[in-house]
Each structure stands twice: as C-alpha cells, then as structure tokens.
Amino acid sequence: CVKEVLPPALDSTSEQPPLFDGTTRAYICYTCPFAQRVWIARNYKGLQDKIKLVPLNLENRPAWYKEKVYPENKVPSLEHNNKVIGESLDLLKYLDSNFEGPSLLPNDSAKQQFAEELLSYLDTVMRTVYTSFKGDPVKETGGVFDHLETALHKFDDGPFFLGQFSLVDIAYIPFIERFHVFLDDVWKFDITAGRPKLAAWIEELNKIDAYTQTKCDPEALVKQYRKRFV
C-alpha cells in the first residue's frame, strides 16, 4: 500500500485554505484521538482523493479556524457542501451516509443496536481510564477492559466488536491505542494480559492500513501523556 504524503500542520502563521471552494476538507490534528477517528474512516472508505486533510497545530492554532471555519475551535471538523460540521462520532456516521466506499455499519439490526450500546459505553471507558491516571489504573480500569473483552465475544463472525470491522472499532481504537502504550509504559500494566479477545482485536486492527497510517509514534505519545497526566 502506498503511504499517503501528509501535509504539514498549519499554525498561527499559516494562511487559511479557501473556504467553500468545492473542496471537501477534514480539519484534524495528527495527534488528536477524536480527529484520528475521522481520518481512519476517510482512509477505510478510500476517500483520500475526495477529502483533503487539513492538519492543525493545536498548541499554536490559527485564529482563522475559530473565526471563519468552525466556531467551536475543536477538531475534527468537516467542510462539505458549503457547511462545516463537527463531533467525531457524528462525523463517522456522516461520512458513512454521504460518501461511497465500504459501509461502516452492518445492516443487521442486532448489530446496530449493540453498536449504539458500545458507543454510549465509550464515555465510561474514557472517564474511568483518564481519571485512573491520578490514582491506581491497575485497580481502577480492570472493569472497563473486562467489559470490552466480554463485548468482543458477542459476535463470533470476526475479531471486531460487531464481527466485521465497523465504526465502533474506529471510535474505540484511537483511545485504546493510547491507553495500551501509556499504561504499559508508566504502570507496567498490559491491558491485553488475560484478555485474549482484546489482544486479537488490537492485532487485527494493526493489519488494516486505513488505521496504521494514522497511528501516533508511541514514544511521542507517552511523552505527551506523561506531561499531561503524571
């Protein structure tokens, strides 16, 4: 597979790309897990030529982004059909309904219902794990990772949450990727130990180019998280 040549991140000195000139743009940050979701979905649906990445430097973000593009001033956002919309989970569904490429949700209603349950549960996972960085992650996060291990047993027609790869995997992996590396580095806590389904899930995801092309450098990630949380 050909690795995409990524544009440099724009900062406060960079000019604004033209707005609403007919180009579809995904405003992201290379290190932001929320933005990574949209980036993975774009890649997986084969939309590299349809959706242009506009990476921003969030430490030194351009003033025009908030003033002219997206008043929320967060990433990701998507400029499409003369409007700009945000919120990463909404954008995954938007990309799926508005663009061609492999579907990100199965037609099976039981799987769709389980998808919604897992997407709601994500808040619990994130809250629990991020809070645990101030305490004892080994004790405090076991329950949420066990919950995911159990969830991965529900459909046995593939290694992913809904059996086949879906937007649920895309929603989870940017965070699990970070937790996996960081907990192991700082607390020597391997979240996949004793959780074979979770281990297999991470392994299978790492065979998908759409995802691996968006991954952060683990060392940079640990450094960033140490600075923020330890």
UniProtKB/TrEMBL annotation:
Classification via InterPro entries: Glutathione-S-Trfase_C_sf, Glutathione_S-Trfase, Glutathione_S-Trfase_N, GSTL1/2/3, Thioredoxin-like_sf
Gene Ontology MF annotations: glutathione transferase activity
PROSITE patterns named in the record: GST_NTER (PS50404)
Catalytic activity: RX + glutathione = an S-substituted glutathione + a halide anion + H(+)
Entry keyword Transferase: yes
CDD domains for this protein: GST_C_Lambda
BP GO terms, sorted: response to toxic substance
Pfam families in the record: GST_C_2 (PF13410), GST_N_3 (PF13417)
Keywords annotated in UniProt: Detoxification, Transferase
Coiled coil (UniProt feature): none
Xref: PANTHER family: GLUTATHIONE S-TRANSFERASE L1, GLUTATHIONE S-TRANSFERASE L1-RELATED
Protein's name in the database: glutathione transferase
Protein source organism: Actinidia chinensis var. chinensis
